[in-house]
From TrEMBL:
It comes from Cohnella xylanilytica. PANTHER family: TRNA-AMINOACYLATION COFACTOR ARC1 FAMILY MEMBER, TRNA-BINDING DOMAIN-CONTAINING PROTEIN. The keyword Hydrolase does not apply. This is Methionine--tRNA ligase. GO terms for biological process: methionyl-tRNA aminoacylation. Residues 30-130 form the TRNA-binding domain. Pfam families: tRNA_bind. Keywords: Aminoacyl-tRNA synthetase, ATP-binding, Cytoplasm, Ligase, Nucleotide-binding, Protein biosynthesis, RNA-binding, tRNA-binding. It comes from the Bacteria. GO terms for molecular function: ATP binding; methionine-tRNA ligase activity; tRNA binding.
Amino acid sequence: AAKPDANAGAGVAPAAEAAADRKEEIGIDDFAKVELRVGQVVACEPIPKADKLLKLQLDLGFETRQVVSGIAKFYKPEELVGRKVICVVNLKPVKLRGEWSHGMILAASQGDRLTLATVPDGMPNGAIVK
């Protein structure tokens, strides 16, 4: 008899996880309310006593803005300086561990992996992402 393939079913879990994470559909008008812009990380530092959080300063072209993000387990602050990220700029500010966050940077995640959504260096800070 044939041995069962040890890799059988590999890849099923990520698909099942992705399906379980689905949200309800929204209309184009709802999506149009989200303002996405290119921001360049000009400074980044850990937040004391917050293992998961980093405090980033983003140059959005029209202003520099502070964003707090739960990416410290995936990125060192010095790795992020100079990177161009995609930021939601019209979220209501929220205070996290004593620091104000004025937006959210976008990232893809699956299981224990996370990768920032970035754009090429040639794209200007503040460019609209559609």
